[in-house]
Amino acid sequence: MATATYPPPPPYYRLYKDYSENPSSAPEPPPPIEGTYVCFGGNYTTEDVLPSLEEQGVPQLYPKDSNVDYKKELRSLNRELQLHILELADVLVERPSQYAKRIGEISSIFKNLHHLLNSLRPHQAGATLIHIMELQIQQRKQAVEDIKRRREEAQRLLKDAFVTLDGQ
Question: 3-class SS at 42?
Answer without folding.
Answer: strand
